[in-house]
Amino acid sequence: MSNIAKGLEGVLFTESKLTFINGSEGILTHLGIPIQEWAEKSTFEELSLALLDGELPTAEELARFDADLKANRAIPDQLVQLIRDMPKGVHPMQALRTAVSYLGLLDAQAEDVTPEARRAISIRLIAQFSTIIAAINRAQEGQDIVPPRADLTHAGNYLYMLTGKEPTAEQARLFDIALVLHADHGMNASTFTAIATSSTLSDMYSCMVSAIGALKGPLHGGANEAVMDMLDEIGTVDKAEAYITKKLDNKEKIMGVGHRVYKNFDPRSRVLRDYAEVVANKEGKSDYYQILETIEKIIVDRIGAKGIYPNVDFYSGTVYSDLGIKKEYFTPIFALARISGWCASVIEYSRDNRLLRPDAVYTGATDAHYVEMQDRK
Q1: Which residues of this protein are catalytic (predicted)?
Q2: Is residue 34 within a helix (H) or strand (E), and if so which, with residue range?
């Protein structure tokens, strides 16, 4: 029998110049540049453009891209009304999936699958994802939808549309770093799904709706929400050690710990941990951070030698919470960042497209015959 790579683990199907991951050493780079440098020195806007074009932009190119994003932040009135009319209590990812699909109906360029069209659509999608998600959040809470502003950064504008208040420079920068850390991560499930859809020469909006559907699953996009549930269950830092020790003794899964790729610290988690500590101490919301700090020490001592460490989801939820984002919107925020990686990966694969058509090992009957209905038992 042929070897089967369950979950496609280790299967190579394409080449990419965008993202490199060395899981055993905890390395993540975009265009060869370490994620730590992107987080420290760059912005979500610059990383998005770099991923789309496969190279660092010039100052002029970045300024033009930033202007394009700002010019495309507003969403059509028909979509605003659709978001207002959505049933209350829907899953935010369901709402996002529907909104993006509807957005495609309103785009006269939607069916154009040329590289030039895909790039133009990508700019609009990157610009409008944050507007859509903020609008969904406010509409679901019965609040007026806040239109975007053109004088704020991408991250700052989202926080403004979410709360109706202009964020501090520190809040905007913290959220910007979180977006940078989530913008792309190789051939994860949602990126692969977007590429698989694109390989059929389907339109860009269908690719993004497919990716949203994949990200919606709790094994992919919902881990940071589950971390917050765990923190609420623990309650206080003095209960953390007993809670985690019991989990480990019973060999139960601990949310935000372990990764399919990383067998060392997820480098994104190291960046977020430092920022989470600063924000927690400054905002007086240190309980969550102290619980996570306690859990991390126990995890590293008990199972770190097995290559199991905290991942990016471990600290991202506390950062989002400190910024006033509700946990049910953590996964849409993931999409808000990952839209750049999705679009860039689709564009890259489209340059040398080949229809994805994997196979399966057949394990069913080989000598069966049709049985008439009256003879079936």
Answers
A1: 259, 313
A2: strand 33-34
Domain co-membership, 205 together with 261? no
* Order of strands across the sheet that contains 33-34: 19-22, 27-30, 33-34
Cβ partners under 8 Å of residue 173, min gap 6: 155
Higher pLDDT, 85 or 322: 85
Dig out the tokens for 74 from the structure.
């507003």
At 27-73, the pLDDT tens digits run 999 999 999 999 999 999 999 999 999 999 999 999 999 999 999 99
The Cα 223–Cα 257 span in angstroms is: 9
Q: Would strands 33-34 and 19-22 be described as parallel, antiparallel, or unpaired?
A: unpaired
Tell me which long-range contacts 115-120 makes (C-beta under 8 A, separation of at least 24).
Answer: 115/347, 115/350, 115/351, 117/204, 118/204, 118/343, 118/346, 118/347, 118/350, 119/52, 119/347
For residues 108 and 174, membership in a common domain is answered with: yes
H or E segment and range at residue 30: strand 27-30
Just list the catalytic residues: 259, 313
Amino acid residing at 127: A
Which residue range forms the structural domain that includes residue 177?
A: 19-216+328-350
pLDDT of residue 283: 62
Tens digit of pLDDT for each residue in 310-361? 888 888 888 888 888 998 999 999 999 999 999 999 999 999 999 999 999 9
pTM: 0.91
Distance (Å, whole) CA 234 – CA 250: 17
Domain count, the chain: 2
Bridge partners, residue 34, by sequence = 29
Name every residue whose Cβ is closer than 8 Å to that of residue 67 and which is 6 or more positions away in sequence: none
- Long-range contacts of the stretch 295-302 (C-beta < 8 A, 24+): 295/240, 295/244, 295/254, 295/257, 298/241, 298/244, 298/245, 298/248, 299/244, 299/254, 299/257, 302/248
The verdict on 85 and 184 lying in the same domain is yes
